[in-house]
Amino acid sequence: MSWYLLILAGLFEIGWAIGLEYSEGFSKPIPTLGTAVAMIVSLVLLSQAVEDLPIGTAYAVWTGIGAVGTASLGIVLFDESVSILRMGFIGLIVLGIVGLHAAGGH
């Protein structure tokens, strides 16, 4: 169950990171509210996941999910640059997440 909470926490991390772009420096109320709610939900879920998972593993996976999702959505939503090299490094983060799950968790 902790891994599911951790994955969900990572998805909410993507939500608040993308929300930062839409909030335009917290100047837009609705995107700012959504960003704040996603931040809180993400941290609550992360805190629940670390009750059973090692903090180092959980934090690395949480930030990895956030990094991969945010970078991917940045390409899709905000026309950020994409290259073979960039995609390769994003793939390495995914590989790290999978490796951490396989190697060290409950």
Automatic annotation (TrEMBL):
**What topology does the record note for this protein and the membrane?**
Multi-pass membrane protein
**GO cellular component term, pick one:** plasma membrane
What residues form the membrane-spanning segments? 29-46, 58-78, 84-103
Q: What is this protein called?
A: Transporter
In its UniProt record, a GO molecular function of this protein is:
transmembrane transporter activity
Cited InterPro entries: EmrE-like (IPR037185), Small_drug/metabolite_transptr (IPR000390), Small_multidrug_res (IPR045324)
**PANTHER family the UniProt entry points to:** GUANIDINIUM EXPORTER, SMR FAMILY PROTON-DEPENDENT DRUG EFFLUX TRANSPORTER SUGE
Q: Where in the cell is it found?
A: Cell membrane
Q: Which UniProt keywords apply?
A: Cell membrane, Membrane, Transmembrane, Transmembrane helix, Transport
What is the superkingdom listed in this entry's lineage? Archaea
Origin species = Halobellus salinus
